[in-house]
Each structure stands twice: as structure tokens, then as C-alpha cells.
Amino acid sequence: MQTNLRSCYRQFASLLLLLAIALCTSCTAINPNTASVELSIRQAQATGRPGAYVVTGNTSLPDETRITVTAIRDFEPAETSIYAILDRQYAVVQQGTWQADLNLWQPAPDGRFQESWQISGLSTPADPAATVTFLATLDPANQPAGFRDQVEAEDDATQASLVRFTTDGELYLEASRQVNVALPSGRTAPPEPTPAAAPRTSGKPVEPTSDRDQPWSKTDAPLRPDQRLQ
Hints:
Layout: H1 2-29, E1 39-46, E2 52-59, E3 66-76, E4 83-92, E5 97-103, E6 106-107, E7 113-114, H2 116-119, E8 127-138, H3 147-152, H4 156-162, E9 163-165, E10 171-180
Antiparallel strand pairs: 1-2, 2-5, 3-4, 3-8, 6-7, 8-10, 9-10
């Protein structure tokens, strides 16, 4: 009798071990770390407010990852790449999606809606393109640990469509979508005059107060090719 009980116990223990192995194998198969890398722009849609666009997309990146979303107007024809950054904002990943609200037009001092390069009065050697390019970029500083290894494990087609490198050899991801966007028209109430900045009393740098004050959001004029992520 005891021999039969021991035999039944061993068989039951073996079944439990096989079940545990099967469950572990299943968990490994759906490990999110092995998921294909994705970053895409689903749409860039006008909101009805002058120059305002909502840009949405999908991604396999973890929640709370920050993606930089940029609107650029190229100038053509030109011997070298000439473009103006119209707006740039952060989007935060939530459950595989992200969204950013961009304002491509700004009121000039007389109330006319204009793009940044028009307000600056910058003369360009080429004509503005009929389209605006929306870029979604995962900058090197915002990448999760081990991300480069995951990207380099992707197939050649995925890498060719998403992967870019800075001039320093740092890897980043970039997705793009072009949309026909007419040049600004119409006007609004002139903006309030900006108060004169108070004189600085020391050499200590002034700390930025918002994302709009960060250095990356201050570039309004067309940039040289070496000033943009390559």
C-alpha cells in the first residue's frame, strides 16, 4: 500500500513539474521584451483652430516614454536642405499610443497668422513646400535600457524604416508623415507686448520654466543640415 502511494505521489509531482515547465515556456513566448519595435504616426489632423494640428501614433515603447514630435516645412528647390521648424512638443506613451498638439501658426505683431520663419523676417533662397513633414522621434536620451540591442536584433527592413544615427553615432528612431498644409491666412487680435526682461545681476544662467523654454524649442528659423538629427 505504501509503495502504491509513493508511486502515485511521484507521478503527481512529475505532472506538476511538466505543467510548470509548460507555463514558463508560454511566458517566455509572450515576453514583451521580444516584441517587434514599432513607432508610427497614425494621423496628423487639423483641429479647426488656425494652424492647430493633433498628431497621434502607435508604438511598442513602454508607458511614460517621451517622444519628440516636430512639424517642419521644407523649402525647394535648394542645393542644400533648408527647412523651418514650425513647432515641437513632447508626447508621452500610454498603452501603446501617443498624442501631441502642435501650433504651426503664430500671431505676428499686427495680428496676422504666420509661421515662425515669416515672423522672423528671414529671407530664404527657395520657396516653401506645399507640405509640412511631421516627425516622431525617440531621442537617445529618452531610450529605455538595452534598447539599442533590441533594435539591432530587428530585421533589415524594420531597421531601414525607423533607425537613424546622429553625427556622434547615437541611434534614434524616427517616423514621418507629410501633409498638405497651406501657408497661413487670416488674422486675430494682436498679441500683448512682451515685457522687457529684467536686467541680470549675475552670471548665473536663467533656469527654464517650461518645455517651451528648453533650447530645443527655441529654434524657429531654417536650420543647417548639421543642426538636425541626421
